[in-house]
Amino acid sequence: MIYQVYVRSFLDSTGDGIGDLAGVRAGLPYLKKLGVDGIWLSPFYPSPQHDHGYDVADYCDVDPVFGDLEEFDRLVAAAHRLGIKVLLDIVPNHCSSEHPWFREAVAAGPGSTARARFHFADGRGPDGSEPPNNWHAMFGGPAWTRITEPDGRPGQWYLHMFTPEQPDWNWRNPEISAEFDRILRFWLDRGVDGFRVDVAAGLYKHPELPDADDPEADARARDSVNPLAWNQPEVHDVWRHWRSVCEEYTARDGRERLLVGEVSVPSAREHAKYVRPDELHQAFFFDLLSAPWDADAFRKVISEAMKDIAGTGSTVTWVLNNHDQVRAVTRYGEPATEGSGLGAARARAAALLMLALPGAAYIYQGEELGLPEVVDLPDDVLTDPIFHRTGSRARIRDGCRVPLPWSGQASPFGFTTGEQSAKPWLPQPDYFAEYVTERALADTRSFWHLYRDGLQLRSSLPQLGEGTLRWLDTPPDVLAFARDDLVCAVNFGTAPTPAPVSGVPLLTSGPCPPGVLAGSTAAWWVVDETPEP
């Protein structure tokens, strides 16, 4: 169970309104009490912050807004004392336009070895004024930007699958692999336990960079859809090599190093290729996150993952929220006319379901508080490059990144402290007073206690982390499966279920009376014998 820390929104120790590494260190006892096994830190490297740190200018340092390397070392040491592992977010697909190598490439001119580290190409048309191909960027607009050459003339174009401030590395150049070897070892030598790999299906592009049949597919889906830019076969060689680097460190001290990939591919079968025994240890399976609130849809997604991913001997890595997606409470509550409490009930049920599934589970900060998406941020505070590149609020990500509420009745809700405290970098709504952590810890009916109790049960029933599941016969709109001596049942409908799950001899039923599972809720039952399929 890994907890995603979005550093700039977790806890601010300096009073500047931006979370930092010292704030994460101060929050470790809270995470230990919750029961997590590790934390994944969003990028904190030096960056101009055009995409909040995913535009990296220096992969081997800490941006002063978040602290310094000494503070990072203190954080790792404190986490390890508490038995909490530390994963870093590594960004190998692209860097910042302020990275020294990109600046060198712009200054070096066409045909230089410096430009060979990126995707520079001449434009089309008689004067080279058209992009080299028709690809569009994930965040909107063309995937190519033209530079001005050192002599002042309009020059070549460079590829960026996200924003112009994030040029893509050319992984066909062996210098890039060697550089990331150095980066990985720098952080592994400082004691990190592994890496979350950003855009893990990216890196390699089609060698000829041809036109796409559907050039706007990525921008339309805001996903890795263009088959010429993503999921190229050569990328698997990278993960085999990175796996060997991690295993080299594990062989030294017996401490496992983890690689978990952000993998967006067309099917569970393609996903399974990334978690073969010699590649990534884990890869986020986003299909559960994107599934509609429907028993049949959830069963289909889970079944495919168990067949295609777990069937290879790999671990399925489940996730319901992250820093790029609308929070589950809001997502499951749509349309809003169905009532504000419906999304919360469904999110609680989905959490119990996820924690009962075989495999790994990741949660995003605030998920354990039941935080909803902040949907009414004014335009003048929005920072997401998607908004600034498209002019549309559709699928923007600021609403799930609003700083956490810790205490009190008004903003900054304990997020930032000190006599000269600045306002949080994104404004917190007044209703966050209902979700502060001090209130959640005191209320045994809160989301926080649901997650804490679920994690404690996972620890006491270690078989939950591995193995298989068996589907059970259920009434309509109910999903139930058995894991050895535990049954998880979820009612996707809105009315009570009039009969118990077929074949389950109930020993305990928690808060639900035997035979009744209220609508949009879930429950775990311990059974006195393994039920027949």
TrEMBL record:
Residues 4-401 form the Glycosyl hydrolase family 13 catalytic domain. Keywords: Hydrolase. Transmembrane segments: none annotated. It comes from Streptomyces thermogriseus. GO terms for molecular function: hydrolase activity. The keyword Acyltransferase does not apply. It comes from the Bacteria. CDD domains: AmyAc_OligoGlu_TS (cd11332). This is Glycoside hydrolase family 13 protein. Belongs to the glycosyl hydrolase 13 family. InterPro entries: GH, GH13_cat_dom, O16G_dom_2.
